[in-house]
């Protein structure tokens, strides 16, 4: 019997990663992500999968970011009840991210209903915090490097992918075929995460292409972030920094601490981390020493490098403060979360600054801000943007095109085929061409919903 892959997400977009592997009547889902960005994509979250959740025999997660794990509560709510395999770091992060995701969706629906700007009456969350809590018992942690059987007769092995805590590539072996899922690959020169492990031998590779059409700048995040924060502090402004609660928030906290330590920023500059999810994640770094570059002292210093804001009352109180100050808040593409309230409050003042810290998927508010638009829609109203908008080019946690190719070159031999996924169409196709011309390998960009052999 042949082994096939159906691409249910992460194709033509950097969100919604879901790859369904079928063989001999068994089905395994690699990643279970939410679609984000354009409304047309977000609507896919409400469309049933082409397979009943109770027909899926197992799920593997490459890492905990919501575009890879955030659909899991809905999958479980609709009938999936088997194991979800992940590394210990991914399991620990999912325990933080998934309930928070449900909570934010409930808050956003409640806010929409209260202010009457939803077209639906009432607006409903995709799933609730309780739905997310109910699915957590399905998570089963497996150490990196240890082979296991997610389905009898199938073998899977995690290898470190860098990127964020717990992030892994997955080698799946079934019916004599070896399928390698890169997951999101980190950078070899990341500020806090270790570089990815070398790629194992495989017959088929699914490779991410977030930065498939570009290279990271040579300057590091300190050289970009320092002058921006110094500038806004000097004019007494507020820097609002949308951050991914996992990975980006901690990297920027570490960067700000280093900038203060070497005198590039005033030690007195107030820094606030306004995201319960980011606060909880920051504490996790102490429990996963060895997965990142920070020693125990540096990991402990992360939690003291900013005022940790957890409650909504504490978050609201920030509005009573005056600049200069720095507010780091989720979400990283300004698609939801507390950062929206800060953007609505501070975007109109020219003394302030909005610092975007990584890839902004098309259709997100972050992408709108990055494009230079002078208005952004938040909570049903148009907010004027007079604040200076700065987009850091060096803060990404993803490998760039050359780094992805370098990782592929670590494979002991050429695979039979490469499927280019997790990228906007231009980035994915550019990486496809580079794989074909520079490596001489067969590469394809699959369409959403298509099924291909391995």
Write up what this structure looks like.
Helix 4 runs antiparallel to helix 8 and helix 6 (221-234) crosses helix 7 (248-261). The strands form four sheets. The protein has a seven-stranded mixed beta sheet. A six-stranded mixed beta sheet has the order 7-8-9-10-19-20, with helices on one face. Strands 13-12-14-11-15-18 form a six-stranded parallel beta sheet, with helices on both faces. A hairpin with an 8-residue loop joins strand 1 and strand 2 (18-23). The longest helix is centred in the N-terminal third of the chain and has 28 residues, at 88-115. The protein starts with a strand and ends with a strand. The protein has helices at residues 39-42, 66-69, 72-77, 88-115, 129-135, 221-234, 248-261, 276-284, 296-302, 312-317, 339-346, 365-370, 401-409, 425-439, and strands at 4-9, 18-23, 26-30, 58-60, 84-86, 139-141, 155-160, 168-174, 177-181, 204-208, 238-242, 271-274, 307-309, 325-329, 353-356, 375-378, 381-384, 388-391, 417-421, 443-444, 451-453. The radius of gyration is 21 Å and the shape is globular. The protein has 454 residues and is of the alpha/beta class. The protein is 30% helix and 20% strand. It folds into two domains: 4-214 and 397-453, Ribonuclease Z/Hydroxyacylglutathione hydrolase-like (Metallo-beta-lactamase, Chain A, 4-Layer Sandwich), CATH 3.60.15; 221-391, Rossmann fold (3-Layer(aba) Sandwich), CATH 3.40.50. It contains 14 helices and 21 strands.
């Amino acid at each position: 019997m042949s082994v096939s892959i159906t691409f249910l997400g992460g194709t033509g977009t950097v969100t919604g990663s879901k790859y369904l592997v079928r063989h001999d009547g068994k089905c395994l889902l690699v990643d279970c992500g939410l679609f984000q960005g354009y409304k047309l994509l977000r609507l896919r979250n409400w469309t049933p999968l082409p397979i009943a959740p109770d027909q899926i025999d197992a799920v593997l997660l490459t890492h905990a970011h919501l575009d890879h794990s955030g659909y899991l509560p809905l999958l479980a709510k609709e009938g999936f009840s088997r194991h979800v395999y992940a590394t210990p770091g991914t399991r620990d992060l999912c325990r933080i991210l998934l309930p928070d995701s449900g909570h934010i969706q409930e808050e956003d629906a409640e806010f929409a209903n209260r202010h009457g700007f939803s077209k639906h009456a009432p607006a409903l969350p995709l799933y609730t915090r309780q739905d997310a809590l109910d699915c957590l018992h399905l998570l089963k942690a497996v150490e990196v490097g240890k082979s296991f059987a997610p389905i009898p007769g199938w073998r899977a092995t995690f290898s470190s992918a860098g990127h964020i805590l717990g992030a892994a590539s997955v080698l799946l072996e079934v019916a004599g075929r070896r399928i390698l899922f890169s997951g999101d690959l980190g950078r070899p020169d990341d500020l806090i995460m270790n570089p990815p492990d070398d790629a194992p031998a495989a017959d088929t590779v699914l490779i991410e292409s977030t930065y498939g059409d570009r290279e990271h700048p040579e300057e590091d995040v300190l050289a970009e972030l320092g002058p921006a924060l110094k500038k806004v502090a000097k004019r007494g402004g507020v820097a609002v920094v949308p951050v991914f609660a996992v990975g980006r928030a901690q990297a920027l906290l570490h960067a700000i601490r280093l900038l203060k330590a070497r005198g590039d920023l005033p030690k007195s500059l107030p820094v606030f981390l306004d995201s319960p999810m980011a606060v909880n994640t920051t504490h996790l770094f102490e429990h996963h020493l060895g997965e990142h570059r920070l020693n125990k002292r540096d990991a402990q210093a992360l939690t003291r490098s900013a005022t940790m804001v957890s409650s909504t009352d504490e978050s609201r109180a920030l509005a009573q403060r005056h600049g200069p100050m720095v507010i780091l808040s989720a979400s990283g593409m300004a698609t939801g979360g507390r950062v929206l309230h800060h953007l609505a409050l501070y975007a109109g003042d020219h003394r302030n600054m909005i610092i975007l810290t990584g890839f902004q998927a098309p259709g997100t508010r972050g992408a709108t801000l990055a494009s230079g638009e002078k208005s952004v829609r938040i909570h049903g109203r148009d907010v004027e943007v007079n604040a200076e908008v700065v987009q850091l080019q060096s803060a990404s946690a993803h490998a760039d095109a050359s780094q992805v190719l370098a990782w592929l070159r670590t494979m002991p031999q050429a695979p039979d085929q490469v499927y280019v996924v997790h990228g906007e169409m231009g980035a994915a196709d550019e990486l496809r061409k580079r794989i074909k011309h520079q490596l001489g390998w067969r590469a394809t960009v699959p369409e959403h919903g298509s099924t291909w052999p391995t």
